[in-house]
Every structure is written in structure tokens, then in C-alpha cells.
């Protein structure tokens, strides 16, 4: 089993649950916490499932919910009805502004990659890429 983690500000930030044979998760975490303690670092878990919360709790972790991943069943989704009125208004505004959504499959032209890079650079506004949990702009990934 293994953990995906990164050092940040005197903490080892673990992305997601351990991966591998669940029978070895306890010993993996024992070793990981010993390693962190030896270095004087805190351990932080990010984007973990409810399934292993008791295990993390046994190591003294405290939990708070910082967000939720949206999962939409597209076979059942509809924009009709009173509940979706605001969403329809947003879609109509996008249409008025000539904003479009499309899926473009590779291979991509150099001009298209450069256009995407400009959008990414503008969004970053001089900041560096996040990398760890949200990825980064790379032509190979696209």
C-alpha cells in the first residue's frame, strides 16, 4: 500500500485515501505517522472518503468538511421546471454572450494549444501552478 503526499509548511499533506491492500493500511499509517513525528511535521489528509475515517480518527485526526464533489446523473438531469429557472437564465445569458461549450478531441493544433496556454496564463495571473490536487497546464496531459 502507499500514500500520495507532499510536504507543505511543516506538514505532510496526503491526497486521498491509501492505495493498495487495505489489510496493510494500519501499518502503513503507523510508519507514516512515525516518520512525520521524527521530522516534527503534522499530518493532514485531503479529499478522503468516509470509508477510512475511523482509521484516521484512531490517529487523533479531527475532521471538517471543506467542500463536496458534485456528481450529476446526466441521464436524469433536466433544465425544465421552476427549480431550474435560475440555471436556464444562466444558459440564456451564455447564449447571448456567444459562450459555447464543446468537447474537442486530440490531436490538437499548435495554435489551439497556444490559445489554451493563454487562457491558463491569464487565469494564473502570475501565480504558479497548483500541481498537487488540481493538476497543471501541460500539453502532454491535454
From TrEMBL:
Residues 1-141 form the Phosphatidylglycerol lysyltransferase C-terminal domain. It holds the Pfam family LPG_synthase_C. InterPro entries: LPG_synthase_C, PG_lysyltransferase. GO terms for cellular component: plasma membrane. The keyword Membrane applies. GO terms for molecular function: aminoacyltransferase activity. Keywords: Cell membrane, Membrane, Transmembrane, Transmembrane helix. One of its GO terms (biological process) is phospholipid homeostasis. It is found in: Cell membrane. It is a multi-pass membrane protein. This is DUF2156 domain-containing protein.
Amino acid at each position: 500500500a502507499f500514500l500520495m503526499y507532499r510536504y507543505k509548511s511543516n506538514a505532510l499533506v496526503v491526497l486521498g485515501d491509501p492505495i493498495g491492500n487495505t489489510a496493510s493500511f494500519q501499518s502503513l499509517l503507523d510508519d507514516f505517522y512515525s516518520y512525520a513525528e521524527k521530522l516534527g511535521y503534522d499530518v493532514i489528509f485531503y479529499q478522503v472518503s468516509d470509508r477510512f475515517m475511523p482509521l484516521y480518527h484512531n490517529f487523533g485526526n479531527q475532521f471538517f468538511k471543506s467542500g463536496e464533489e458534485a456528481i450529476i446523473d446526466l441521464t436524469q438531469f433536466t433544465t425544465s421546471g421552476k427549480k431550474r429557472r435560475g440555471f436556464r437564465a444562466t444558459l440564456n445569458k451564455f447564449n447571448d454572450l456567444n459562450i459555447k461549450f464543446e468537447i474537442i478531441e486530440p490531436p490538437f493544433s499548435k495554435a489551439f494549444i497556444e490559445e489554451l496556454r493563454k487562457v491558463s496564463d491569464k487565469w494564473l495571473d502570475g501565480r504558479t501552478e497548483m500541481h498537487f490536487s488540481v493538476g497543471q497546464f501541460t500539453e502532454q496531459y491535454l
